[in-house]
Write a structure and sequence with these properties.
This protein has one helix and eight strands. The protein is α+β, with helices and mostly antiparallel strands. This is SH3b domain-containing protein.
């Protein structure tokens, strides 16, 4: 018989795997070099391939040592973060609305509005 704790662990693992692609919010949208060198591993060295940027935007799969891992034509490569432009998803949440300006909470002598009088 399957233990309930095993079922819960399996369900949590499935949810974690299902949600993982949503974390790749950054995208490579442009390159400062043409053709862009594509590396087999982070850290640079000799490029494994080059790309003219076809298929951009490329989702960032991982970031390490100032390099981004991307998938180009079905193959994983690393690109130098200094040679590409990245678009990051962002969102803002508004806080509570301030209905009045709060009074001063501290001051420096001579720095107030009456300092020159």
């Amino acid at each position: 018989m399957i233990q309930p704790s095993s079922m819960i662990a399996a369900a949590l693992a499935a949810l974690a795997l299902y949600g993982a692609p949503a974390l790749a919010a950054d995208q490579i949208v442009g390159a400062s070099l043409k053709p862009l060198p594509l590396y087999a591993q982070p850290g640079g060295g000799t490029p494994a391939a080059k790309s003219d940027g076809q298929g951009m935007p490329w989702p960032v799969l991982e970031s390490r040592e100032e390099f981004y891992r991307v998938k180009v034509d079905g193959t994983d490569y690393w690109v130098d973060s200094m040679q590409v432009r990245v678009s990051r998803n962002s969102s803002a949440q508004c806080g509570p609305v301030v209905k009045r300006v709060p009074g001063p909470t501290g001051s420096t002598a001579g720095a107030g509005e009456n300092a020159c009088r």
